[in-house]
UniProtKB/TrEMBL annotation:
Keyword Transport recorded: yes
Similarity remark: Belongs to the ABC transporter superfamily.
Name listed for the protein in its UniProt record: Oligopeptide transport ATP-binding protein OppF
UniProt keyword annotations, A-Z: ATP-binding, Nucleotide-binding, Transport
GO biological process, one term: transmembrane transport
Residue ranges crossing the lipid bilayer per the database entry: none
Entry-linked SUPFAM superfamilies: P-loop containing nucleoside triphosphate hydrolases
Length: 256
């Protein structure tokens, strides 16, 4: 019996057209993520990894190729206003503070993903938000604060709460620890690992730090100049890199 995948990325390509030139940011990449799996796209700035993530999340138009998520080709025209994507696939961004409106409280921000659900009352949404805050290690009195009043780690926990409140199947995590102190990075990664187990989540991690994600990933793909140059399990990638660029990333992480 053929294995079923939660996410399949097939021949994905993104071209940005300028006045006198075309920039190929992502060039014919392919990968698959199984349910419950953590898959990481690794590469330096400009490698195309975040562009790929934004196409998968529906934040950027796809030039060529297709994204199949939970057996549906995206964007799914049958799902009115993208509600399917909101429920099943969520994204956590690098800079948590910039992803929140400064005029919205933590409670309002978390409840955003629930407001279109006609069967949920305001009381239901508030209860769900409190419950989700506790899941990410924050007390419910955080609900009435603004994200600008929180530390970077606390703000990223709120961002994770906002992402999981709709019970998604896949989280796309784009450099989610990059703006945090080293000690806080470890705490956020441990939180994500616990949520993965408790909620049966799948992850697509985007990172420049191969050492950071090697301990949490089931598979790693290395991107360079819009192409995936190597893919495999972390042990193979770290101990027996096949591509020179992968070796450079590993040595750079060791020196850091």
């Amino acid at each position: 019996m053929a294995e079923e995948y939660l996410l399949e990325v097939k021949h994905l390509k993104k071209v940005f057209s300028r006045k006198r030139s075309r920039v190929i940011a992502v060039d014919d990449i392919n990968f698959k993520i199984s349910s419950g799996q953590c898959f990481s796209l690794i590469g330096e700035s400009g490698s195309g990894k975040s562009t790929a993530a934004n196409m998968i999340a529906g934040l950027l138009d796809i030039t060529e190729g297709e994204v199949i998520f939970n057996k549906k080709t995206l964007p799914d025209k049958s799902c009115q206003k993208g509600f399917y994507l909101r429920d099943e696939m969520q994204m956590v961004f690098q800079n948590p503070l910039s992803s929140f409106s400064p005029k919205m409280t933590v409670l309002y921000s978390i409840c955003e993903g629930l407001r279109y659900r006609s069967h949920m009352t305001r009381s239901d949404m508030t209860h769900k938000a409190y419950e989700t805050l506790e899941m990410v290690g924050l007390k419910k009195d955080y609900a009435n604060r603004f994200c600008s009043e929180l530390s970077g780690g606390e703000c990223q926990r709120v961002a994770i709460a906002r992402a999981i409140v709709s019970n998604p199947k896949l989280l796309i995590c784009d450099e989610v620890t990059n703006a945090l102190d080293v000690s806080v990075q470890a705490q956020v990664l441990q939180l994500l690992l616990r949520l993965k187990q408790d909620l049966n989540l799948s992850y697509l991690f985007i990172s420049h730090d191969i050492a950071l994600v090697s301990n949490i990933s089931d598979r790693i793909a290395v991107m360079k100049e819009g192409n995936i140059v190597e893919e495999g399990v972390p042990e193979e990638i770290i101990n027996h890199p096949k591509h020179p660029y992968t070796d450079i990333l590993i040595r750079s992480a060791q020196m850091g």
